[in-house]
Amino acid sequence: MSKMLTKEDLAKYPFLDQSAAFIAGYNLTLSDLTAPAYSGVVDRAVERVRRSIEGGAGAATLNLGDTETEILSYPLALALVYASGARWLVNRFATSEAKRCEELLKMEAAPKLAEIAKSSFGWKVDLEDLRLEWERLTFRLGLADYLEVAPQFHSPSWKLTNKYVDKGYVFLDTKDFSRLLAENLKLRIIRKSGEEEAKNFELPAALQPHLSGILGLLEGKKELYEDEFPEGVVDEARPPCIVAIANDLRAGKSLSHMARFAITTFMLNVGESVDGVLKLFSNVADFDEGKARYQVEHIAGMTGSRTKYAPPKCEVLRSFGLCVEPDKLCATVSHPLNYYKRRVRAGPATSAPRGEDGRRGGRKGAQGRHR
Ligand code: SF4
Predict the structure, then answer these.
(1) Domain of residue 296, residue span
(2) Fewer CB atoms inside 10 Å of the end CB: C or N, the chain?
(3) Over the stretch 160-199, which tens digit does the pLDDT of each residue have?
(4) How far is the C-alpha of 171 from the C-alpha of 137, rounded, in Å?
């Protein structure tokens, strides 16, 4: 174990390579964890998953009085999540663990954060003490590592143009560095779920009842599943913001980066193909299909970080002036995808038969933009 990382650290951050080495020292299989002696580990693993489904305090549940249980329960929780085969749960669990870790990471000393980044993520990072007028930047991170994670964040503050960059490094404060570490953890959990090992993973029979309990909890959240979207895009279920952007595109107007990102992510998430999205952009004067295809495929998770991006929340769209003519339903949602899901669920009253392009509903319903 690194001198800098204690057993408590491994319990706080069970994703660390050092935690994996610690677990390997026990020489246990998942089946061994079903023995009565490890019932506390199983309970804690199930609790981790349950909390990710239901939401709730993250770091507050950490029990540093029983570090072994904290460390051992993490891979078991991951096994339950992967065995569920539910992409929504993988995302939810990854987000929950990332949030839990971020809360703890923010409170750590800079050398420990750098050690975690180097030893478990292989990041090129050094400690700095750069004092600018308005901030103190403690970390110097290689640009490649920064760019692997930062594009996940939509806030303009993460753009390189808003960061202090020098000679291939970006300089960060503790808060941002902790956020990046946590987001990288989230990406790792999600990416691993797509690997053959996770896909073909079989849970020991003795753990099946726990998995059944988790699947039962998921039933109650079914309305949130991305997979619940119907086949084919239901045009009439699109929220006013997306309709307005689509209208601008059809009129050949040039759009802001955020507007392009919003419509691309929205359409991909409701089941539009990459070609279908490219078609939307084809009227724009400076349309370059090769460049656009690369960007859309990246956002679809087909290249680069392999993460499919979600559309921004309503509050983000609002701050970019893209929330236009919100209707009554808008007042009850905080995300354009929730708007769409509700309109789709509302049934045939809002979804018309498919048109020639395979879509349901027409292009009508588009409103002019009023800001
Ligand atoms: S409230 Fe949300 S869904 Fe409705 S128009 Fe505004 S951004 Fe779109």
Answers:
(1) 229-345
(2) C
(3) 888 999 999 999 999 999 999 999 999 999 888 878 777 7
(4) 6
